[in-house]
Structures are given as structure tokens and as C-alpha cells.
Design the sequence.
């Protein structure tokens, strides 16, 4: 049967979320998580649907891509289809041809799971390794130590502080209260939580959003940030411990996150919060056509 490239439309997004949840399991390489889709949902359901691509055979979805940026596709592949030759060839063809409506002409990048055959084929087509990223994981079998600071789950009353911390944590952030409410209205946010940490003076100093994928599946931290005026005081490790504890309470088997290896401070923060470093991964970058 022919593999078909498609777009889900807003009506198909909930089904995509369910597929991505089912593909998350312990021991699998990190790939696009339903929480990644949930965080993108801050731009609204229509924008999210426009950024999603699917590859299906016989009505079954085999791969899902999210255009996290017009020139960056983040890809997830069904666990039993990572070495599927027909799928890999179709993916490589669609990703390399701007006329297919996935990636534009010129430089572009793909984040694909380690071990997926499409990575091999893109390499043969001249795609090159990009910057290294460090995945990190914390097992949630045992209880997580307390954060040591006051942490609250965000409700409507805390949204302004949640947004303020986000904007003060990431240069150029465009996060708004309207974006938070759009994100919270999306189906990936069902069961998810936003957390804000406060220091001894009552100032909001750090924030995180956690995304479970269902019981006994890895949950994602995305994003985590510490207010630029309150760094170097252990608030990052505190909010990360709180995030891990929240995911454990929600039934997740582990907490996972991926950060640029060049962000040594973030890597160290996760390590100090009990996360183990996994082997580095790299995007694949297409030279100008």
C-alpha cells in the first residue's frame, strides 16, 4: 500500500495526540512527545494543525512531524516502523523535496529518533549532523525529594506570574496570558500541569510545564525556566525536582527533557536534580539546495 503524506486539520489533532502518547515507552529513543505538541498549542489549534504532517499506510499513521519552525521538523516514528524501508524512503523523499510542502528550499533541519532508518537515508543524501543535544532522564520509581521552596500549581490566578517568569527566563519570549490559555485549552494539557516556584520573599523565580503521556510512560518537561534576576540560587534544581514529583504523581514512569549540549548550565541543573545524561543526539541539516 502507498504511504500517504497528510495534514490532520484541527479535527484530527486529538487523534495525533493519542498516537504520540501510544508511541512513548521506556527504553525508546527520545522523539516528538505529545507535550511538544502541547507547548506548540500556545499558538492556537489552527496554527498547530497547520504545523503537523503525518505519513500513513492503509489508514494507520506511521510517522508524525511537527514544524516547530518553518525550517525545523521534529519527527516521531511508530516503534515498529523505525526500520521500515518504504517509510524511510518516502520520508527522505518528502523532506528533501520542497515541492512536497514539508520543508522549504534552502537550509533545513530534521530531528529524527536515533536508530530510525530515515536518518541513514538522509545522510546518504548529503544531510549533515547539526548541533549536539543532551537528553536527560530521571526514573520515577522512588519518591522525589521535596523542592525546598514553595511551589504552586498554576490556576487562573497565577497565570500572570507564570507568563512573567517565562518572559524573564528566555530572551525574546513572546509568551502571553492569551497564549497560556490557548495552550491550556488543548487536549495535550489534559492532565498536564504548570508549576511556579517562589523564593522566601514571595517572588516568582522559576516555572515549568510538565506533560504526562499516560500511566507508566515517560513524561516531558517543556519548558523550564528560571527568572534572569534569580539565577545561581538553586531555583532551577528546585523547580525540576517539583516537576519530577508532579509527573510521578500523575503516573509517569520517568521524567525526560532534552537541552542543547552547549547550555552547560541547564545540563548541570538537571543533573543536580537527579537526572541522568543519555547519549547526545544531533539534528540532521540539509545544505542549501
Sequence:
Amino acid at each position: 500500500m502507498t504511504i500517504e503524506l497528510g495534514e490532520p486539520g484541527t479535527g484530527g489533532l486529538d487523534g495525533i495526540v493519542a498516537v504520540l502518547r501510544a508511541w512513548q515507552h521506556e527504553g525508546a529513543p527520545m522523539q516528538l512527545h505529545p507535550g511538544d505538541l502541547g507547548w506548540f498549542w500556545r499558538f492556537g489549534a489552527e496554527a498547530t494543525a497547520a504545523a503537523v504532517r503525518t505519513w500513513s499506510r492503509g489508514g494507520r499513521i506511521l510517522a508524525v512531524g511537527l514544524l516547530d519552525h518553518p525550517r525545523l521538523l521534529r519527527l516521531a516514528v511508530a516503534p515498529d516502523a523505525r526500520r521500515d524501508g518504504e517509510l524511510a524512503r518516502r520520508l527522505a523523499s518528502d523532506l528533501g523535496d520542497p515541492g512536497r510542502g514539508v520543508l522549504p528550499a534552502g537550509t533545513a533541519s530534521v530531528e529524527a529518533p536515533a536508530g530510525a532508518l530515515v536518518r541513514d537515508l538522509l545522510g546518504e543524501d548529503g544531510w549533515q549532523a547539526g548541533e549536539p543535544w543532551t537528553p536527560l532522564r530521571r526514573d520515577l520509581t522512588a519518591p522525589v525529594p521535596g523542592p525546598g521552596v514553595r511551589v504552586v500549581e498554576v490556576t487562573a490566578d497565577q497565570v500572570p506570574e507564570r507568563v512573567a517568569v517565562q518572559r524573564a527566563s528566555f530572551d525574546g519570549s513572546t509568551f502571553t496570558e492569551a497564549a497560556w490559555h490557548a495552550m491550556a485549552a488543548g487536549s495535550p494539557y489534559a492532565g498536564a500541569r504548570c508549576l511556579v516556584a517562589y523564593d522566601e520573599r514571595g517572588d516568582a523565580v522559576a516555572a515549568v510545564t510538565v506533560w504526562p503521556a499516560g500511566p507508566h510512560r515517560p513524561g516531558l518537561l517543556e519548558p523550564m525556566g528560571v527568572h534572569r534576576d534569580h539565577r545561581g540560587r538553586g531555583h532551577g534544581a528546585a523547580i525540576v525536582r517539583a516537576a519530577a514529583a508532579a509527573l510521578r504523581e500523575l503516573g509517569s514512569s520517568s521524567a525526560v527533557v532534552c537541552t542543547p549540549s552547549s547550555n552547560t548550565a541547564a545540563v548541570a541543573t538537571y543533573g543536580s536534580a537527579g537526572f541522568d545524561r543519555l547519549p547526545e543526539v544531533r539534528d540532521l541539516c540539509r545544505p542549501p539546495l
About this structure: DSSP finds nine helices and 13 strands in the chain.
